[in-house]
Automatic annotation (TrEMBL), chain A:
The keyword ATP-binding applies. It comes from Spirilliplanes yamanashiensis. Residues 16-256 form the ABC transporter domain. This is Sugar ABC transporter ATP-binding protein. One of its GO terms (molecular function) is ATP binding. Gene3D superfamilies: P-loop containing nucleotide triphosphate hydrolases.
TrEMBL record, chain B:
It is found in: Cell membrane. Its main location: membrane. One of its GO terms (molecular function) is transmembrane transporter activity. It is a multi-pass membrane protein. The keyword Transmembrane applies. The keyword Transport does not apply. Keywords: Cell membrane, Membrane, Transmembrane, Transmembrane helix. CDD domains: TM_PBP1_transp_AraH_like. This is ABC transporter permease. The chain crosses the membrane at residues 25-45, 57-76, 83-104, 110-129, 136-154, 174-196, 226-245, 257-273, 280-299, 305-324. It comes from Spirilliplanes yamanashiensis. It comes from the Bacteria.
Length: 258, 326
């Protein structure tokens, strides 16, 4: 493998590049010229205070919001997602902060939501319920978290079980990038540990992961790279191995500038 | 042998007797229990209630309400409500009457009625989904608009519709089942399949359960919203045809009791007004219950004025029970 030094490191490993992205909600400038990139096979962490714009940036990448300015590239190509469907089709799956599971539907229905398997009969298509239930069982069986029968409604699941189902859904469907917005914020210690195992396994299976977290220990434990946001701006990035929790905190609060 | 049998029987009855003490169990089956109770009470009070002639006429009478309730179920499953169903039915009936008076062939008149319902439903859905205005307000506007348009279009006068086919539709049938009852049953079966066996049905329930979660998976909740109002409007158009067949005329007079009863049937059927949880069987049983209630009261010679009173009480009782649903 001989690559020219100019392209190695960026063009080849880089999966997503966010370039000068800005977005305002009325007078609130939620994102201001944000630029960052994340690599294949890595867990990239995104940290920052409440209201720094992390979730908004995630929503831009996953097709819920469209930036006012700037570009997002996937695999070196500019993408302009008009809705979450297009982002999912491109291989970007998101576990949203508010979980994004439908409580009144069952586990298998949630796992296959808008990705339902069907039997075709001419112009008609009926759900392949058996097939989905079987595959859902397989998807869930590999989880470190013990999820009850796939036929049970999500309403009956604990926080950790729900998070596991949401991650399971994001990991399926051959996604290139799995975005997780504070996946352990609402979980207990043991559940957090289990979900962290899941996150590491995602990376080992070759998914790129964008992890938003308030938990510095977790970020230092899991991530390969850290980006820091403050007041709508991306104020710096570090390789996790080359930084410390103190430095990250200083960047977040603005005590230190990049 | 006998011991194992009793053990098995015990095992079966034990949890069941437990379930009988569980309010949630009754909440889920409120409509069915209510229907059975009504049938027993009315059947004892007046033997003609269970005569095949009366059952036949009850099923025919329940047909229109069933069809409207099925449409209403789809809307309520998304967390909305269609207050305009009855007015759309009136408007569609008037469209039928006017085209019939203008000498259109019957098939074209029927098509016109259904399309009229579909169009108003589509407008409802589009304004709600794209204009982001509350379902309640938009369909309240449509209620007024459609009943007014019916009066304008017909100049306030009914049109007599006499036609051999419609006569057969209202009077004929197979055995105890009149044609309109059969049509309603077919509509209910198709609706059940659509709601539980198609992607669209899942998306309807997802939209009602959490429109945010549905959107995040790429479901276009706007399209789902429009579709359920189109279904409701189209079924109101179908209801108009059955109404004309039964009455023998297209009347611009409003059918307000159908509005209340369609919502009532859905609530009786245990469908959550918050959206996300629905069945088709429940509202169908609800429609049968409401029809049996009015029919039985009429047979017993209770003044018509008391019927809305009874319906009101039953509906609020049912809504109260749904609080205990699991
Ligand atoms: N849909 C929205 N409408 C208006 N303001 C919003 C919206 N979403 C986020 N904001 C604002 O944008 C800023 C960034 O929010 P967010 O991205 O949720 O921050 P974080 O996830 O980093 O805590 C906040 O000031 C928030 O109030
Ligand atoms: Mg956030």
């Amino acid at each position: 493998m001989t690559t020219s030094p100019a392209t190695s490191g960026t063009a080849i490993d880089t999966l997503v590049t966010v370039d000068d992205v800005s977005l305002s909600f009325g007078s609130v400038r939620a994102l201001v010229d944000v630029s960052l990139h994340l690599k294949r096979g890595e867990i990239t962490a995104l940290v920052g205070d409440n209201g720094a714009g992390k979730s908004t940036l995630v929503r831009c990448i996953s097709g819920i919001h469209r930036p006012d300015a700037g570009t997002i590239s996937l695999d070196g190509r500019e993408v302009h997602f008009r809705n979450p469907e297009e982002a999912r089709e491109a291989g970007i799956e998101t576990v949203h902060q508010n979980l994004a599971l439908v409580e009144d539907l069952t586990v298998w229905q949630n796992l296959f939501l808008n990705r339902e398997l069907v039997h075709r009969f001419g112009p008609f298509a009926l759900l392949d319920r058996r097939g989905m239930q079987r595959k859902a069982q397989e998807m869930v069986a590999g989880l470190a978290v013990n999820v009850p029968a796939v036929k049970s409604r999500v309403r009956r699941l604990s926080g950790g079980q729900r998070q596991a189902v949401a991650i399971c859904r994001a990991a399926g469907f051959s996604s290139k990038l799995v975005i997780m917005d504070e996946p352990t914020a609402a979980l207990g210690v043991q559940e957090t540990a289990r979900v962290e195992e899941l996150i590491l396994r995602l990376r080992d299976e070759g998914h790129a992961v964008l992890l938003i977290s308030h938990n510095f220990a977790q970020v230092m434990r899991l991530s390969n790279h850290v980006w820091v946001m403050r007041a709508g701006r991306c104020v710096g990035g570090r390789r996790t191995a080359e930084t410390t929790g103190e430095e990250i905190v200083a960047l977040i609060t603005g005590a230190k500038s990049a | 042998m006998t011991t194992t049998a009793t053990v098995a029987a015990k095992r079966d009855t034990e949890p069941f007797s437990h379930r009988l003490k569980d309010v949630g169990f009754w909440a889920e089956w409120a409509a069915l229990v209510g229907l059975v109770l009504l049938v027993i009470v009315f059947g004892i009070a007046d033997p003609t209630f269970l005569s095949s002639g009366n059952i036949q006429s009850m099923l025919v009478a329940a047909a229109i309400l069933t069809i409207l309730a099925v449409g209403q179920t789809f809307v309520i499953a998304t967390g909305g409500i269609d207050l305009s169903v009855a007015s759309i039915m009136t408007f569609a009936a008037v469209v039928f009457g006017q085209t019939f008076a203008a000498g259109w062939p019957l098939a074209a008149c029927m098509l016109a009625a259904v399309v009229a319902g579909l169009l108003i439903g589509a407008i409802n859905g589009a304004v709600i989904a794209k204009g982001k205005i509350t379902d309640f307000i938009v369909t309240l506007g449509a209620l007024s608009f459609a009943s007014g348009a019916a009066l304008v279009l017909s100049d306030g006068k009914p049109v007599t519709v006499i036609n051999a086919f419609l006569l057969r539709l209202s009077a004929g049938g197979v055995g105890i089942l009149g044609w309109s009852a059969i049509i309603a049953a077919v509509v209910a079966v198709i609706a059940h399949v659509v709601l539980f066996r198609t992607r669209f049905g899942t998306h309807v329930l997802a939209t009602g359960g959490s429109s945010e979660a549905a959107t995040a998976t790429g479901i276009s909740t706007a399209r789902v919203k429009i579709a359920v109002y189109v279904i409701s409007g189209t079924l109101a158009g179908l209801g108009a045809i059955l109404l004309i067949a039964r009455v023998g005329a297209a009347e611009p007079a409003s059918n307000t009791s159908f509005l209340l009863n369609s919502v009532a049937a859905v609530v009786l059927g245990g469908v959550s007004l918050m959206g996300g949880r629905a069945t088709i069987t429940g509202p169908v049983i609800g429609a049968l219950l409401l029809t049996a209630l009015t029919n039985g009261l009429t047979l017993l010679g209770v003044s018509q004025f008391y019927q809305p009173v009874a319906v009101g009480i039953v509906v609020v009782l049912a809504a109260f029970l749904t609080r205990f649903q699991r």
